[in-house]
Amino acid sequence: MTDSILNSVILMALLGTVAALVLYVVSRRFHVYEDPLIATVEDLLPGANCAGCGSPGCRSFAEKLVGTEDISALFCPVGGNAVMHLVAEALGKEVAEKDPTVAVIRCQGSCEVRPKTSEYQGPRSCAISALIYSGETDCQYGCLGDGDCVVACKFDAMYMDETTGLPVVITDKCTSCGMCVTACPRNIIEMRPKHKRDLKIFVGCLNEEKGGIAKKACAVACIGCSKCLDVCPKDAINMENNLAYIDPALCTLCRKCVDVCPTHSIIETNFPPRKIKEVTPVATLNIEPANPQNDA
Amino acid sequence: MLRTFPKGGIHPPENKLTSSKPIQKLPVPKVVYVPISQHIGIPAEIVVEVKEKVATGQVIAKSGGYVSSNIHAPVAGTVTKLDKIVDTRGYKTQCIVIRTDLKDESNLEAADLPLKKEITMEPGEILQRISDFGIVGLGGATFPSHVKLNIKADKTLDCLIINGVECEPYLTADHRLMLEKAEEILVGIRILMHALDVRRAIIGIENNKRDAIDLFRKLTREAPGIQIAALKVKYPQGGEKQLVRALLKREVPKNGLPLDVGVVVHNVGTVFAIYQAVQHHRPLMDRVVTVTGKKLENPSNFWVKIGTPISDLLEAVGGVPEGTRKIVSGGPMMGKALKSTDVPVTKGTSGILVIPGDEASRGKPSSCIRCGECVEVCPMGLEPHLLMNLTEKGMYQAAAREDIMTCIECGSCSYVCPSHRPLLDYIRFGKTIAKQLESNKG
Q1: Where is this region: Hydrophobic (chain A) (predicted)?
Q2: Read out DSSP for B244-311?
Q3: Domain for residue A222, yes or no?
Q4: What is the CATH number of the domain that holds A263?
Q5: Mean pLDDT, range B47-63, rounded to an integer
Q6: For residue B114, which phi and psi values (nearest 5 degrees)?
Q7: Rounded to the nearest 5°, which phi and psi values hold at B43?
Q8: pLDDT tens sequence across B251-283
Q9: Test mutation, A117, A131, A241, chain B, max B CBs within 10 A
Q10: A77 and A154, same domain (yes or no)
Q11: CA A44, CA A83: separation in Å to the nearest integer?
């Protein structure tokens, strides 16, 4: 009885020792050296694996950061300047500051203003319906409303508004990773600077048709009238293919263009209410409740 | 036992409502809209200017490359605009707008061209003529014919197949053409045989067109080398690969062409166009279009000038009936639903199908029940349910490994699916992405 117990204990001990030896030899023999900095940097990164930086995931971005001499061109949009500074500190390299950006939806063709002229019964996916045809409305540039951007967003920063049929960006949650921008087959979503208190002015339309056709398809379409060009004091607006575009780098958020736009296709977000009496109602859409701060 | 392809296939209700209606000439429209991209390949380049007067058959857009085709003025008149108009998918495409000169003689309804049997041209000349006169495959794919007829030195060709299958339900354009222009088509076949130097040609016709089969049998009794084959009625027998398999028991390799097994396939409509180009010096300017639908007052077949708005055609059959929910360009299986009836007829428009409300809706998709119906009917031996799932999950490379690119988009899988799953929509999308990935790699 004692013998058998003793035998098994000895056997187990021997087996354990042999296995340990094998493992030790193997781990020594096949050891792969890795820069410990990579792990350090990876820990600093947000770990969202969103690919917003251009690398497939945070790990490969960390490898890139450690491996590249000049990292000023690399940027993690999710972590922003704060994380990039920490990374720079850990690596002893220089990083460039970047203004935080946020996704904006450049279409306000809700069901009300953009009537449906056909019916789509295929799979609910923008990519597929864009491949099949130009969408349920007469605007071939606008939002298809099947929510590929919402599916692509890994941060729960988007949802579909049931009444308008358009996606909405929750700006506080948006990390500007850019996944929605790539997911949208119509290139409606743009990353624009957040400015202070998330003030933004942009043209909420991509329709390149001539005014009449655009207006017929959608009541809030940009008709290319160039009125905004004339009032802009900074020449921040350019007109191409019957479509205005406001350059965020030049725009000073003076809101003059918003007032003159006859179709209300220029969107302003999060501005305090106007002091003077408004002549025309201002188009507001897809924005979170504005935070009125009268000292702006 | 009638010949057919062994793998898969379906037999939807035929509904050939217009098979006994002679082809009528549609009056020349007041304005034609001629798109510059009516074929597979590079769009043609416009060579006319606004306000320029054009004669019937004048080249108005020149072929933009090797896989491209010339486009000719279908009517005599004045170019009023070079504009963008909506295509079948609702996107804008470049097109040439010509206002018809109603006084011009060539626009008047002319008598049919006389049958001309002797072939006087040399093979090289014939091929050049086919290329110059804008002939493309009229079966629906609109592949430029001269590319198909250019036999590379390392390939051997021993058989010409003429596709008179018309397996799409409802459509009767090819059927009527075969009945009315049988002798011309036979001359066209002889032209092709002469040009390609082949001794053997087979006309494949499905057995629901007995009259056409009998007519051709009668006419070819004396003709050497031309055979008529009656085929079992089965969709998609009009697909090149299926037809080659059915007639010759030769399997076209995947990603290959019929030429790899020594065959060239041409549609009867194309052959007739080639006859007109070679014998009568007449470029491709019109085609037969079936305008059909169960609720239409007078569904018919028409000779239609390229560029005629589809609304004109609908008017000619007594207008769109009440309760219409969908208008399709092409047949019910592979056709495309139209977003607007302002779309013009192009070289590839074989039919216009008007579908009433109760038949126009798709079923509500539910989960795959693994019944295997789609696998059973796929004529290419693919697994549509798997391809759809892979595409849905974004696994495009895996889908490419499962041969998604060999799908011929016949839609049999979507047709039989008891869960109404949109199999073809996903597969088509997967193919687009797989193609992009492929081209990015190379």
Answers
A1: 1-27
A2: HHHHH--PPPTT--GGGGTEEEEEHHHHHHHHHHHHH---S-EEEEEEE-TT-SS-EEEEEETT-BHH
A3: yes
A4: 3.30.70.20
A5: 93
A6: -70, 155
A7: -60, 155
A8: 999 889 999 999 999 999 999 999 999 999 999
A9: A131
A10: no
A11: 7
Q: Which whole number is the average pLDDT over A130-150?
A: 91
CA-nearest of B359, B315, B360, B322 to B341 is: B315
Global ipTM: 0.84
- Distant-in-sequence, close-in-space partners of B440: CB < 8 Å, separation ≥ 6: none
A251 and A121 belong to one structural domain: yes
Determine how many CB atoms are found less than 10 A away from the CB of residue B233.
Answer: 17
The closest alpha carbon to B328, from B376, B368, B292, B283, belongs to: B292
Report the predicted TM-score, pTM, of the whole model to 2 decimal places: 0.86
- Please tell me the predicted confidence (pLDDT) of residue A294: 45
Domain B123-280: top CATH class = alpha beta
**Are A109 and A285 within 8 A, CB to CB?**
no
Residues A235, A236, A238, A243: what is their CA dihedral angle, to the nearest 10 degrees?
-130
Do A244 and A114 share a structural domain?
A: yes
Amino acid at A145: G
Q: Please indicate, yes or no, whether residues A249 and A125 belong to a single structural domain of this protein.
A: yes
For chain A, the domain total comes to 2
Q: What is the mean pLDDT of residues A144-163?
A: 92
Q: Give domain status of residue A129, yes or no.
A: yes
Question: CA nearest B172: which of B2, B21, B381, B393?
Answer: B21
A210 lies in some domain? yes
Structural domain for A185, as ranges: 101-269
Same domain, residue pair A122 and A251: yes
A182 and A251 share one domain: yes
Query: Is A279 domain-assigned?
Result: no
Task: Write out the residues of chain B at the interface with chain A, using a CB-CB cutoff of 8 A.
Answer: 86, 88-92, 336-337, 339, 361-362, 365, 422, 425-426, 428-429, 432
**Residues of each domain in chain B carrying CATH 3.40.50.11540:** 123-280
In this structure, the answer to whether residues A53 and A200 fall within a common structural domain is: no
Q: Hey, what amino acid is at B175? A: H
Best B92, B425, B436 member to test A by mutation, with max A CBs in 10 Å, is B425
- Supply φ then ψ for residue B410, to 5 degrees: -80, -20
Tens of pLDDT, residues A156-187: 999 999 899 999 999 989 988 889 999 999 99
Chain A with chain B: Cβ pairs closer than 8 A: 39
* Structure confidence at residue B91 as a pLDDT band (50, 70, 90): confident
Q: What is the least distance, in Å, from the CA of A239 to any CA of chain B?
A: 20
